[in-house]
Request: fold
Amino acid sequence: MKSEALTILIQGPLNEDSACLDFIENYQKYGNVVVSCYDNNHKGIHKATNQFKDVDILCANSEVTDEFSQGIGLCKDSTFIWALYTMLRGLHHINSKYTLKVRTDEGYEYLYDFINMFLNNDEKVICGNIFYKTETGHKLHMGDHIFIGKTKVLLEAVQNLFFMYLKRNSFKPDETLFQNKYTAETVLARSILRQINPDIEKATDSYKEQEFFLDNILPYDINGFKRFIARWNNADITFKNKFDSDVYLRE
Reply:
């Protein structure tokens, strides 16, 4: 049943063949839908606008790229700053209490169990197990392709990262949040955890920080979505309706 307390935020580059376009109608069964994207030729924007009603579409301005290139703490040629920017624009636009974030190149159906797992304790964040890693060397590595949490928590977490990288206002550089030192998934998780419990920033024991992560950012087996399309872009692999986490975690 659709809930006004939930918004599905679709984020990323939008093309006329983006996988998310086949799932938007399904997403509308659960809550409001916001697309926050960037689109070089606007074909994806036109298609989405013509195909769907009651979907807010926010298209990023490519003119901001010069400022992005002067950021600190980012990997060269990374799209992480674009991910943060489009997430931030979407989150600022959302009025609902909760936000479920997905990507433009992916799509998921049968969200009930995923949403209910979160609603059982909405102080936590639930994420897909694709790219969720817990073994040594991958501490605080959440799955950032699909996750759900309180909008306020996600907004503050993303905003803090974005403004720090762009050296805005009073956001001081913090190397524990630098993407050129840690993975994008890790710095996003760390920023989220600091919103859930600000005292975790003072933790000097990495074991305690990892334990807090394991208690507060919980994985959901994406095979439970039954029908889905997920992407591992670096390996150019598409997972359709079946994901073997053991194979991925061995990579």
The mean pLDDT is 88. The first helix runs from residue 24 to 27.
